[in-house]
Amino acid sequence: MKNKILLSALSLFSLAACTKQTVDNNSSGGASIVAPSSVPAVVRTAFDNSFSGTNGIEWQRNSSNSFTVQFNMSNQRHDAGFDDNGHQSSHNVICLEAAVPQVVLDNFRQRFPTDNVYEWKLTNEGNWKPHFMRGTIKYEATFSATGIFIKFEQAG
Question: Are 103 and 116 in contact (CB under 8 A)?
């Protein structure tokens, strides 16, 4: 019986290790990691033109048939969204909690006292987006740089 349980657990783990699910800011579905060779040349060129000097590049194909790329640049982790034609739809800096203004942290904690953030993003507009889970459901909220709550939504 122990062997069956162990075999089942290993099987589930190996299946889960094959794909990575994430949430795109522009869609409600998940994404799968793809090889750079699976990304259209026009998308890779647009990325290279917009973000030089990057490393740690990881491409993801979203359920909306767009791409999200995570990468390191200037000692920070970033993500950017592109459509199939190479048009950039988003760019965020993924931040550690230590980089988030205290007023944003305080207002997040007032509104969401029991939620644990696994990722903070700073948008091009200067808004802060904490990403957190409740059970298996991903959520994100949006706060202005001055801590004003803007919105709360299920991410996927």
Answer: no
